[in-house]
Amino acid sequence: MLTRKDKSSAKWDSGLMSNWREVKLGELGEVNRGRSRHRPRNAPKLYGGPYPFVQTGDIKSSGGRITSHKQTYNEVGLAQSRLWPINTMVITIAANIAETAILTYPACFPDSVIGFIANESICDVRFVEYTFRLLRNKIQQENVGTGSVQDNINLQTLDELRFLLPPLSEQRAIAHVLGTLDDKIELNHQINETLESTARALFKSWFVDFDPVRAKMAGLDTGLPRHIADLFPDQLVDSELGKIPEGWEVKVVSDFASIKGGKQLPKDKFVDNGSVPVFGGAGLMGYTDDYNADGDVITVGRVGAYCGQFFSYQGRAWINNNASIIAQNEGISGEWLLLSLRNLDIDLIKKGAAQPFISNSDLGAMNLIAPVDSILETFRKFLESLFRRLAQAQNETKILTSLHDALLPKLVSGELQIKDAEAFLARVV
Question: What angle (nearest 5°) sits at the alpha carbon of residue 83, between those of residues 75 and 73?
Answer without folding.
Answer: 35
